[in-house]
Amino acid sequence: xxxxxxxxxxxxxxxxxxxxxxxxxxxxxxxxxxxxxxxxxxxxxxxxxxxxxxxxxxxxxxxxxxxxxxxxxxxxxxxxxxxxxxxxxxxxxxxxxxxxxxxxxxxxxxxxxxxxxxxxxxxxxxxxxxxxxxxxxxxxxxxxxxxxxxxxxxxxxxxxxxxxxxxxxxxxxxxxxxxxxxxxxxxxxxxxxxxxxxxxxxxxxxxxxxxxxxxxxxxxxxxx
Length: 224
Hints:
Layout: E1 2-5, E2 11-13, E3 19-26, E4 32-42, E5 48-50, H1 65-69, H2 82-85, E6 87-89, E7 94-98, H3 115-118, H4 124-136, E8 142-146, E9 152-153, E10 160-166, E11 171-178, E12 182-184, E13 196-199
Parallel strand pairs: 1-12, 3-10
Antiparallel strand pairs: 1-2, 2-5, 3-4, 6-7, 7-8, 8-9, 10-11, 11-13
């Protein structure tokens, strides 16, 4: 399965890529607990054009607004493998690989005292929460490492795309690509296939094509 980025235009999802609209489920403080599926678009009968500029009136689909606003979708993100960019943090039960440039403000790490506290604790609740954050970080910024074997710990995810709505924040969120679907740049470069990445769909990211949470400051990304 593949998602192709077009020059200053939309993402093009191949036939067969499952598309689902999901909402973040948040607690009263806005920390994210999980996902709730709201609409299943299925696999489509052909290529699907997904808005990348953020101005489409038919979100999540492209309606041609990128041409009207002169959208500049130049990709500037690092093209090295994740492990070449991430820093390793020594935790209590798990170690952590962390690449902050990928943060999409998924807020799974904000529950209770927070992920930064739990990583350095060994009680059962903290260990379970640490594992949950490692499994659910939508952008793949955080990846846990088994301290004994040195192996990275990734959840088994189906190949599908989540089109996120951040209801607690009142904004459309990123495009969450799951299960190792290939993302190919406008110039033909194949980004490293990863279990989890988040693609920008507000058109304002400073780490194109990946989300950097700029959508939270974009008026055109506010939920109706």
